[in-house]
Records
---
Amino acid sequence: MLFSAEISDFRTVHNVLRAISFKDYAILRPTEEGLKFTLEEMKSVEISAYVPRNMFSYYRIADNADVSFKISMKVFTECLNIFGDEGNPSIKLSYKNEGAPLCLIVKHSEENITVDCEIKTLNADDSPDFSLAEECNLNKVVFNANMLTEVLQRLDNGADDITISLNPDPPHFTLSTTGIAGESKVNIPRQSDSITIFQCQKKSSWKYAFHHIRQILKVMNYANKVAVFSGETGLLGLQLVINSDERQMYVEYYVTSLFGDG
Amino acid sequence: MKFRGLITDTSVMKDFMNIATGLSRFSKECVMRITERKVYFIISDEDNGPRRPLAWCELPVSFYFREYNLVGVTEEHNEIYLEFSTALLARSLSILKQNVKSLKIKLTNKDSPCLTLEMEMASEATQSRQCVHDIPVEVISRKHWNDYEEPRFNDFHVSIEMPNLKTIKTIVERMRNMSHSLTVAATKDGRLTFQIKTNIVTLSSHFPGLGVESFAIGQLELTSSDSQEEDQQKVSSIVDIKKFLMFLSGMQLNSCRTVCSIVHGKMVKLFMEQPGALSLQIFLTQLSI
């Protein structure tokens, strides 16, 4: 058995996975630290959710095994949600060997109902597990998630692109959009109650496609904190901390900038 | 040909309205068969091929009607078959949500044959108010009655009690998002299984410990590929998942008994009964793949 795990309270996990599934297929990578789900598109957007080991009641990976495979997120999230809002179910996951299906056993806690699923897995070809975090470690701002989500949602929804600027001097943090309807701009000073950490060594300002940023907005609704990272290359990183009862899970999002700096 | 029925009990009127709403979820058209002791609503499969009932709903006259007069097509065949729009019936009867004293249903001829619903509204004013709806109907002639005969099967391999319909509905709704066919299977020891199989997922939900009313697998040659469960004799049939769901969401009845019967590889019958008041049967034939 390459990987097996058990989790009982996974409503938040389900919600988060559904919110990040902007594409059907995701790479699952069980590691010693926890289970990681990664979706990417055209090497320009990558979104990952981490379910840390401590959220599972049982978690085991074969010694020295480097496990990763691809599955359909649509199917996986439907299976997690098989009892809807009722039943408070628990799930056992298992992955025997390369090429084997991912097996799920879902048990209803009140009634004697068991659901078993076998989800076909594909090889996770060319999925280098390098850390993008190093590429955007120049500036960092940590926000209260509600505020940032609301600001982003209130920006012109039809906008084509969004420029995110960080500046050691006022106005510190700026979001501006351009689109058919015109331009909009929001400044958030570092003194704002919603900013808990502001580390900016050097001005950075990059333009991103707004439809990419929208992909992360859905899951930001579940987040408690959001850290925004930027670096020299224009890569934008967002890290979301999501509380689930006493524990926390994480979502990471990376997006490359549009050509030319904003 | 004459038909006239009167309902005065408020809760019975509500039941009648709920049935009409349920029927309208099943299909656009239905056939109402009026006989001396029972009223039937029959819904035919809309697929091509020979007409055959998909849903069969039976109402005892004595439970619903306080007054009931019927003069059928002939003395020998004292019945009437009418075809009409379920949506019109449901919409007209939705008036019963208000405070209605009585509901009269009759067959009339106003330019064309109609099922006329007369509802006497209860109002505080001294003058009473009446609400009349005419639903155009087509009277089905004797030679087509055969199309609406009750399907009789007595070769079911298994009849098993169904668990809580709400739970099944939730599960099957998720399944519908992944597949359009559903395998319904049951074993002798009372395990009911719903399964979907696609090229990316196989998902089965098991409900063990259900009452088995009958199990007759003796004559059946099981040549299926369920080799892992060879010791566990199993009867199954693959049906259209949408039609199956329709049954679960169509009629919201309380405290009813539900039985699932399967002819291996041929069909599934779902039977739902509120004793004395209503019975509903759904006939789902095996999907040909």
Note: The longest strand of chain B covers residues 100-110.
---
Amino acid sequence: MERKASFSQSRGLGFFLALPVAVCAVAAILLYRKTGVTEFSPALYPSALWSAWAAAALSLISLFVNWKPVKYLSYLLALYSFIQYLSSQATYIVNVFVSIDGTTFSSGMIATSVMYLLTIALGLTAAITAHWQPWKKGGNGK
Amino acid sequence: MTGKKSVRRWEAIAVVLATLFTIFCGSYSLAVSQAASINNALGLQGASVSRSDDAAYIYFPSAYADAQSLETAYLAVCEEVEGEGIVLLKNENGALPLSADEKISCFLTGSVNFNYSASGSSAADTSAYSTLKDAFTGVGLAVNEDLWNWYGSCGYGRTKKGSNYLINEAPWSEIPENVTATIGDYPTAVVTLVRDSGEGKDINAKKSDSTDGSYLTLSEQEAGVLARLTELKREGKVHKIIVLLNSSATLQLDFLQDENIEVDACVWVGNVGKAGIRAVAGVLSGKVNPSGRLSDTFLIDNLSGPASAFLNLNKKYFSQYYADFEEEGLNATQMYYGIYAEGIYVGYRYYETRYTDYVLGAAGAGEYAYAKDVAWPFGFGLSYTDFEYSGYQVAAAPDGKSYDVTVTVRNAGSIPGKEAVLIWLQKPYTDYDREKGVEKAAVELAGFTKTGLLASGASETVTVNVPRESFKSYDAEGHQTYIVEPGSYLLTAARDAHEAANNFLAAQGVTAAVNGRMDADGRADMVGTVTVDELDLSYAVSASTGSRITNQLSFADVNRYEGLKDYSVTYVSRNDWEGTWPRELVNLTIENDTFRADIASGKPIPDDGAAMPVYGEQNGRSLADLRGLPYDSEYWDSLLNQMTWEEQAYLVTNAQFTTVAVPSVSKPETYEDDGPIGVVSSTAKLSMPCEGIWASTFNKDLFHAVGGMLAEDARASGKTGLYASGVNIHRTPFGGRSAEYFSEDPFLSGVASMHEVKGMQEKGVIAHVKHFAFNDEESERNGICIWLNEQEAREIMLVPFQYSLAADQGNAHAVMSGFNRVGTDWAGANRNLLMNILHGEWGFDGYCITDMASSNGAIYMTYKDGLPRGTDCYLGSGSASALDEFKNDPSFAARVREASHCILYAVANYSCAMNGLSGESLVSTTTPWWQTALLTAIIVLAVLTAGALAMWGMSWKKARRNASAA
């Protein structure tokens, strides 16, 4: 029990967000692979996939390497992956916005976007709070 | 500042900069991939061109020196077209024209929210257009302001729920008493029934708020207002009720048979464009004598035609889906289909033929009540004067290939007016036809003209030339080509299709008195007969190209396509109306490897045995040098050899509202825009009435004038080409793009388009005729499979395209393919259609562009399928490297070169983009400012991010040192 308390007290909040970041990134990848090919988008973008995998991997690595830049890099890769994802869906998005065919955003696309956004938001939060320990007096443990 | 604070500050700066850097880097490739869209939106040019002011190089001069004179001329044509196209359908009790002192009450929200245009590629900014009230007051008529203001603020009006149109009309009960009290002072009721329509969605036959769910039927509220007005009329408080049908689509007119509704006059005005509303007031006030004739049949029951039969059976949706599409893994661009079971019996061809067969008691005709289906026939239209026809003659023309039909028209009334003279044809329906399934309509429009303005008592003798080629029919089974069978071919001059049917019956000795089924006597003296003694196969060879014509579209006929050999469609036949009427849906499945392979994308590239083209030669030729040279001139080879593979790839893949500049051959950029009834980006926000109104003028000079004005407006708006004209068929009343297409009749559509195209292209604006082919509906248009037989394809759906595109007809220099499939093949990827028919039979000398590949159906409109099979360029954002995976395939590369050839040939000879270009002119591409700005931002951000990271690192080190020291 004491060891657990000691462990948690030696890590910042960002540490505990690393796993959710990786989970969200993998969920985004899986959703993209499942729903990314549509009548508007003939193929998946490899850049959207490898960057998301890299973001997830770095986030997991940050569990062992408690170094802020790793978390920031994970966040930036997630952001890059999201932009690549949007690029791959550009035709679809244009079709929705030109409002000619009555096409709307699919639940798959919305879910993928949400997962990407969660990855990005949690990744950034994890990086910023990598050393922040609000449960400790004074907050910043290190 | 403490060390920790400094670390945090640089950390924040570095993260913000790195975030921006990532966003800009990631977005750059997206922006470049959509460069055509961005440039188009920003109005940017991608090339600089050195142009000469020398008049010798102004190949297509504009007739207008300034924007104001152009706008004035445009609006005059707009008003004239509307004035001649408005159709007076009913005029009882001397209701029209209105007298000068009449006071008008305008009813229904459509009055204050008139329909000027349509949505999608016919969209126009109509916010500043004149209102109906402006138009009425402009001709001196007083308008009930209280009622007008109430409708303007009542909160009701046309809307959409999802993709379904709703009428959402204000009920009479909501009109305040103080407003209804004013009606007595303005006792002429003008009731405007309005319907919207547009691209991307057919008009809903269900799920609207009308009495039967169809958007084209009246709502309870609309009918309620008409019924209440009828009560007031019977009480003497309202003097007359005039209904305006303000819609490009044909409203269902069953309400006119309602005993609670008494309409005195009914006028179809279509969508009116920018100035047409003045013509509406002009016709109602008598300043313009209406001379328009219906370009579509107006129906009592909009679902009564055979083309609507499957719509009716399919829960009022046009498209069906393959029952096993899920098991087969078909996507949304593959799973839908539609069957044209009606054969040639589209529009009046059905109603008049069924009527004729019923009158004659033909076998299988069954019971038929024409009056229960048709409110007013195709070609119908009243005038404020009366015209008499005399001296009717049919004689062989001196050319030996046609017949001159002559008739004298006399204005027997008291008001000057014009008369559209319509010539109709009846071909013999023979035993051979019955045996081989060749269908013949009892009435076909075969020619028309319009008199000048005839004063009271004045006469004009008009001659309409009817080519003998009009007698041909397509025999897909027997001779597998066009035939003219022996027999009697009848020609009549009649005011509408139904009068023509009765004239033909009269010529066979049938009278209403003896035959109780005939609803009016015809005039046998208005019928001329041409006898053909023996089978004539001379139309089996194309007059345009000399190539032999034979079946090309068997793959689109369920009964002939190998991949559906277990299925059959019963096409409607006059040989047995009752037995062939569609009574059950044809439910298709995919059980066959042929079908699976054909509906898949990415088919193998056909091996044409072509040699690998030559690239990058320095031959010193310029596109301007080749103006006027024939397409097959050796100089074209020399010029094309100068192009690089990358230039050709960019040219054919990046044609979104442009064809790009090609520096190696000094080809300038061209700029295109939608659409058929007005330039969407019109600087002066101009638009014309709907195409159906143009067609209703039956005036070839006006078709030409409209084309010319569209072109002038395009040029004034910086465009050199228009995605027009729209020539698909009004197959049912529910087609979404009724505003952009002319008519249910292919001949009228074709002739109107041909003259429009000529008017447009004279100005150096290339017409991109659309949507080739069989894109007669909008719903599920992205990849829907259209199944039809070859006779319907050739005698109905392709006819307007042939008139527009054939080298010896309209000679349009571009065509746009449809989103739909023909059978299993995307319309932009079928050699029979795009090569054999379009180029081979018609001699088309332009290029074929896809529909919007950027925002629709990218998954099936592939380069691999389209380019080798007849598509020449993609309306999308491509790149110089877009085709690299096919670069080493000689057949593919040769097709890309040929596509480039088509584009360059059309631009060189027919585009005003060449104005000012001589052989010495230089064309160079330019990088748009936004691209430079993005690159600059990326570089600056990269440097700043690196700097911030360095500062973060140094401040962190320093903080650690300080902490250690402490």
Note: Chain B has four domains: 3-42+928-965, 84-290, 315-366+377-564, 633-911.
